[in-house]
Specification:
Strand order of the largest sheet: 1-2
CATH architecture: Orthogonal Bundle
Shape: globular
Helix content: over 70%
Largest sheet: 2 strands, antiparallel
Radius of gyration: 20 Å
Structural class: mainly alpha
CATH class: Mainly Alpha
Number of helices: 16
Length: about 325
């Protein structure tokens, strides 16, 4: 039985994660001193490593992990890190993972170029895998990541974000990389289509639940615990699921008040907004959606025999539901 600590859940791939960390640090190196300096900072201020972890776990379901799998995990983390750096520039965020963001230290121009470097380096390393299907998976996912961010901006600007559009948006911007991480891990192990598609669905639904959990943090989290300012998304006029629910269910009078709060952007009163979300049942609704996607994620793993690796994949679902940051 796993505890809800991530370290305990990932203990089964502890050795492989160490190999990944070495590989990731090596891939970040360049002949350009500034790139190395930022790369060292990125390696030091690391996140949960969920995406590379699910690459490794999905592969380990089918046997011992080889160097191609380690490289695939690094490619996924390069893509994820690049999107975070670009997001911080777009969102004018000065904190990431509890530390100063790259754009805060080196300014926007350098941050954008570093994000571009990471995207480019991921594609170069992807070619080294010499796998056409994995190349296709990663290429489509890279397109999804950008499309999701642009869809969010578009619909937030015209105040036309619905729950259906929101689902599409969070698949593109978050869940697609979770899903692809799982599929390429299994694909590179040469497994059958039914298995890597089942893992794709596991990752997709886990990613959906993961993003909704982040939306809850944006409304009710504490900056010191989640590692970035609370209310950052709504201050950037990005409509998150709790706010969308409030706008769809509150009385006309309350909806006008919520829209008035949102129109203040940088001067948004997060506490007042959170009260309206709570009044609408938005927090409860989000928890229900997390439960729904978590159940779908578990269901996707039913095809696999019970073993320690499957236990870790299952434990990640509960980790997400209960995480505090």
């Amino acid at each position: 039985m796993h505890s809800n600590r991530l370290e305990s859940i990932l203990e089964i791939i502890e050795r492989e994660l160490s190999r990944f960390e070495d590989d990731f640090a090596r891939i970040l190196k360049s002949d350009v001193r500034l790139i190395n300096k930022i790369g060292q900072y990125i390696s030091k201020v690391k996140g949960k490593r969920i995406r590379p972890a699910i690459v490794l776990l999905s592969a380990k379901l089918f046997g011992e992990i080889n160097e191609k799998i380690i490289h695939a995990a690094s490619i996924v983390e390069l893509l994820h890190t690049a999107t975070l750096i670009h997001d911080d520039v777009v969102d004018k965020s000065n904190r990431r993972r509890g530390q100063k963001s790259v754009n805060n230290i080196w300014q926007n121009k350098t941050a954008v170029l570093m994000g571009d470097f990471l995207f480019s380096r991921s594609l170069v390393k992807l070619l080294d895998l010499e796998d056409k299907e994995v190349l296709s998976d990663i290429s489509k996912t890279t397109e999804h990541l950008s499309s999701g961010e642009l869809l969010q901006i578009e619909k937030s600007q015209d105040h036309n974000m619905t729950k259906s559009i929101y689902d599409d948006m969070i698949f593109y911007k978050t869940a697609s990389l979770f899903a692809t991480s799982c599929r390429i891990g299994a694909r590179l192990m040469g497994t059958e289509k039914k298995y890597y598609n089942a893992l794709y669905n596991y990752g997709r639904y886990l990613g959906m639940a993961f993003q909704i959990k982040d939306d809850l943090f944006d409304i009710k989290g504490r900056p010191e615990s989640i590692g970035k300012p609370v209310g950052m998304d709504v201050k950037q006029n990005m409509l998150t699921l709790p706010v969308i629910h409030a706008l769809e269910t509150l009385s006309e009078q309350d909806r006008r008040k919520v829209k008035d709060i949102l129109d203040r952007k940088e001067e948004i009163d997060e506490q007042v907004l959170a009260e309206y979300v709570k009044k609408s049942g938005g927090l409860k609704y989000c928890r229900e959606r997390i439960d729904h996607y978590s159940a779908e994620s578990r269901r996707a793993l039913a095809i696999f025999k019970n073993n320690a690796v499957k236990d870790s994949l299952m434990a990640l679902i509960d980790f997400n539901k209960n995480r505090k940051r």
